[in-house]
Hints:
By secondary structure, this protein is mostly helical.
Amino acid sequence: MKRLIVLIGVVGISASAVLVRxxxxxxxxxxxxxxxxxxxxxxxxxxxxxxEELKSMTKKExxxxxxAGCCLGLHFSAFFESLRHTSIASAVILSDAEVLFVAxxxxxxxxxxxxxxxxxxxxxxxxxxxxxxxADVGGESGLLGNALALGSTLLLAMYTMIxxxxxxxxxxxxxxxxxxxxxxxxxxxxxxxxxxxxxxYGANNWLTALGMAVLCTLMGHSVFTWGLKYLxxxxxxxxxxxxxxFSALWGLLLFQEKPTLQVILGGVIVIAGVFxxxxxxxxx
Length: 284
């Protein structure tokens, strides 16, 4: 049942790219709106039932959760901006290369060795990601979009690894409340420093952010964070493989974006690599 719930979360996050395309506000402003709404929604269960847990968080747990929130805010900002420059299929497929950075974190941060199957998976994911990144770059703009997508993937991997180490000790509502709040604060500070106006973008962008907060954040990322307490991080990363399938389908139906053969082949290779990595780590 827990695995099915996490699987349903993929449906929620697959709507993210479509909603970004419908928005007109700058990427960081859209992230700010989304995270403010998500934080407000998570505040209700946290303040009603989790006040004592919130107070009992150790300094290390609080700092790690805040760091995770900063990574999440920057991840969303980079990913949203990448969708302004590259196709939905390319951006979402490159986000599945998260396994590359999770594997590197496993080696250098957690000091663990990878099996032969894991190295094969990492190699496949790397080759597939390169194929997608170099396909249909459309000049400097497309190349920038794919680079932003890869950068957002690194930030997402950091968020996932930090969450895996913290979520075993604190509840999902408390963790996400702090993380989402820090994500909102991160993009707010950067927006203010860069002089980006925070208002004047119309009701459409608030509605888009509301849709993201409900469908993509609460029904998507929050479900993944909840699952980290009960399921291996490898499964969480593996189940996200359906995200590019749904997202590419939305892009085709709503925006007539047809992935090139190179993107499709690269995507299949990335998905195969992530699948092998997930199975190998679960076997271990």
